[in-house]
Amino acid sequence: MSRRQDCQTSKFKHVLPGQHVYDGVLFFGYSPPDTLDKVKAFQVRPDDVFIVTYPKAGTTWIQEITWLLMHDGNFEGAMATPVYLRSPFLEFKDLILNEVGLDLAEAASSPRVIKTHLPSKLAPAEIHEKKPKVILFFRNPKDLCVSYFHFYKSSSSFGDFKGDWSEFLEMFCEGHVDHGSWFEFTRSWWTQRDLAHVKLVYYEDMKKNPFDAVRELADFLGKGDLDDVTISRIVTHCSFEKMRENPMTNHLDVYSIDSSVSPLLRKGMVGDWKRHFTVKQNEDFDQLYSEKLGQLNIPFKYQLD
Asked: Is 117 labeled as catalytic in the residue annotation?
């Protein structure tokens, strides 16, 4: 049964295409209520790998790395099909692009690499029963918010967003963005980080030492027998510069993204938030973070040494 709720009057002017609230979480029309219902009942296979990220946490990067690890460095296969078709976005439904995540996932052969931005309570129930591998990919919220702002400006999936940075930051802080509150998403998955089938990976650690991070991820995925040459090739293939040039990962073929406004792969750096946050905005965000998640002591890094 759908948990759709009518959207209450909001102080924010921007309305997402097909905007709706599902079990307390705001979504755009590309994650409709009937799809979210079906996601909960999605049949999980024990050898699945779920990539769990909030939007703009470096999802495409970790998708490509994970797919290559699970397919033993099959670069030819990776260059033959876009990553969004090889690694389905489970709750996404775009009939124009013919990208229906549930259909793609159900038709995919094992091992499947599946992406979701859902909080734990909306994820497939069988994740908790069958315990497939789950990769949590966390990025510091300030850089993530900046990246999400630019994505909002460039993608028609979010409507014709005309707001400025200050407006978007306020929307983000209040969870009035697609896929809802980053704070609630993060809290929901943080509690599962120590489960044996779950691996928490930080974007900033991957940027600082990609070889070691990918090697550690390979071990978690049962791919510890991959040699150093293959791991190095994966790291190189998945560098920001290479992925931005690669038509299988840069999403330049996606009709809804105007790369002239901002490409999907924009900067890929740590610390870009300093170019956007004012001193006051930074202080206010730190206070809000402390109130909502400070007690969890999540070791986010906001710059690299």
From this structure: yes
Q: Are 26 and 177 in contact (CB under 8 A)?
A: yes
Do residues 145 and 54 lie in contact, with contact meaning Cβ atoms separated by under 8 Å? no
Segment holding 50, helix H or strand E: strand 49-52
Query: Cα(33)–Cα(2) distance, rounded to whole angstroms?
Result: 6
Rounded distance, CA 272 to CA 133, Å?
A: 31
Check pLDDT > 70 for residue 146.
yes
In terms of DSSP H, where are the helices of the chain?
Answer: 33-40, 59-70, 75-78, 83-86, 101-107, 127-130, 141-154, 165-173, 182-190, 203-208, 210-220, 228-237, 240-245, 279-293
Q: What are phi and psi of 204, to 5 degrees?
A: -65, -35
Pairing of strands 20-22, 25-27: antiparallel
The two structure tokens encoding residue 12 = 């924010």
Residue 26: band (very low, low, confident or very high) from pLDDT cuts 50, 70, 90: very high
CB atoms within 10 A of CB 252: 14
Task: Spot the catalytic one: 14, 20, 71, 117.
Answer: 117
Given pLDDT bands bounded at 50, 70 and 90, which one contains residue 239?
confident
Per residue in 53-90, pLDDT (tens digit) is 999 999 999 999 999 999 999 999 999 999 989 999 99
**How far is it, in rounded angstroms, from Cα 275 to Cα 30?**
31
